[in-house]
Specification:
Blueprint (H helix, E strand, L loop, with lengths): L21 E8 L4 H15 L3 E8 L13 E4 L13 H19 L4 E5 L3 H9 L4 E5 L12 H19 L3 E4 L2 H10 L8 E3 L21 E6 L9 H14 L8 E7 L6 H17 L7 E5 L3 H9 L3 E4 L9 H7 L4 E4 L4 H4 L6 E4 L3 H13 L3 H16 L2 H14 L4 H10 L1
Parallel strand pairs: 1-2, 1-4, 2-3, 4-5, 5-6, 6-7, 8-9, 8-11, 9-10, 11-12, 12-13
Length: 426
């Protein structure tokens, strides 16, 4: 009887979570956003477990990144490709950069498992090129993050929406960052309604209590807003709220009011960042007439500066509406600082109303009243902050995140059905 040919070994994780793997992350821009922080935390956690971890990205600037990236093996490919053409077709060029990065990573990384996020087209390219397992982390459906003011824009986006759903569907495992995102996922990707989703909350490394700076109980209260300079972050709301406080107190004296620090990720290459930053300065200094002592703007700060801002604030103001998760409220509570956020999306799961912060509408006067509540009782930020710290320790610890993420990466296996599914869809 002729000897049967030996079957090639199937790549990918086998035999549980003890085997060491070559794990490769694909991420578009390793900057200073919440998605980037999650990727850095996940990569660091896997590295600490003994896995060989690499991050492949289309752009990486060591002067504008999280400190943790400097201890990771980061590879850049495709940064020579433009981001747009005369300020247009951003999504087209984002996909071109993603395709280039996918091909490069397949050829050079030697991955046993891929971890992707943000751009689902990565998954299509990887599935066409190799049979390694793919773990896709869905922060939020990308198609819901764009405006479609015209029928032409609607038609223009249709094929990209299709590619996003297809790319998400061919992943071997799909993780989401909150129950809110899971519910939106099922409503948005109707073809994927039976896809098994696992909620893996983003997390942060808890700072030691002794390292947390104490906030002052005298003088003006300082409030901090931390967000990228983007319109969807609705940062102008904090300026409207500060103006409402001034009106409610009927005083402009700095010693009886509040101070505001607006800090955010800023990239001079991104037109929207530049525009929003300038618009906010105009609103603060020209429209409302605040002084630079009352309102301070910061662009792209260090981790230590961020820690100082949060820990000494009376509250962190988190203004995005319908945010899929939002890591900033978690960071604030970890530093024993209350959070004021809009009562929608992820903050509904993370912030406990009137216990660790306040959840409210988009009405600036409502925000002002909650801010004044913290201003009038200097002990309240400390009391709420301590409750917030305990909540983070219980629900959003780095240990819980690392355990879930590690399990997903080490147990996910290649599904041949995903390849069949892709062919059927195409």
């Amino acid at each position: 009887m002729p000897k049967q040919p030996k079957q090639p070994k199937q790549p990918g994780p086998r035999g549980g979570g003890d085997s060491k793997l070559r794990v490769v992350f694909l991420h578009p821009d390793l900057g200073l956003g919440g998605a980037e922080k999650l990727i850095v935390e996940a990569a660091t956690a896997l590295k600490e477990k003994g896995h060989d971890v690499k991050i492949y990205t289309s752009h990486y600037d060591r002067k504008r990144c999280f400190e943790g990236t400097k201890d990771l093996d980061v590879h850049v490919a495709g940064d020579f490709l433009p981001r747009s053409l005369f300020g247009q077709f951003h999504i087209v060029f984002a996909l071109l950069r993603a395709i280039w990065l996918s091909f490069y990573a397949c050829l050079h990384s030697g991955a046993q498992v891929f971890v992707t996020d943000q751009i689902a087209v990565y998954n299509i390219c990887l599935r066409m090129l190799c049979s390694q397992p793919i773990v896709f982390y869905c922060h939020f459906p990308d198609q819901l993050l764009t405006q479609r003011p015209s029928f032409f824009k609607y038609l223009y986006r249709l094929p990209f929406d299709y590619l996003e759903e297809l790319g998400t569907g061919v992943a071997d495992s799909v993780l989401v960052n909150s129950e809110f995102t899971a519910s939106v996922f099922r409503k948005t990707f109707r073809w994927l309604k039976n896809t098994r989703l696992e909620v893996v909350y983003p997390a942060i490394a808890l700072p030691p209590l002794k390292s947390i700076q104490k906030r002052s109980r005298t003088g003006p209260s300082t409030f901090v807003s931390i967000n990228r300079y983007e319109r969807k972050k609705n940062i102008a709301l904090v300026l409207h709220a500060l103006a409402a406080i001034r009106n409610l107190l009927a005083k402009k004296d700095d010693q009886h009011g509040a101070k505001l620090v607006i800090a955010g990720g800023y990239d001079a290459r991104v037109k929207e960042n530049v525009e929003v930053y300038n618009e906010l300065r105009t609103l603060a200094y020209d429209t409302y007439g605040f002084s630079e002592k009352q309102v301070t703007f910061m662009r792209s700060f260090s981790d230590s500066e961020k820690a100082s801002l949060i820990s000494t604030a009376a509250a962190v103001l988190y203004t995005p509406e319908g945010e899929h998760f939002g890591i900033v409220p978690i960071e604030a509570m970890a530093y024993q600082t209350p959070v004021i956020a809009i009562n929608s999306g992820g903050p509904k799961e993370t912030v406990e109303h009137k216990e660790t912060g306040f959840l409210c509408s988009t009405d600036a006067t409502e925000w002002a009243r909650y801010m004044m509540e913290l201003m009038k009782d200097p002990s309240k930020p400390d009391t709420m902050g301590k409750k917030g710290r305990k909540r983070v320790e219980r629900l959003f610890s780095a240990e819980a995140f690392q355990s879930k993420f590690h399990k997903a990466v080490t147990t996910t296996e290649y599904r041949s059905s995903s390849w069949v599914c892709m062919h059927e869809w195409m």
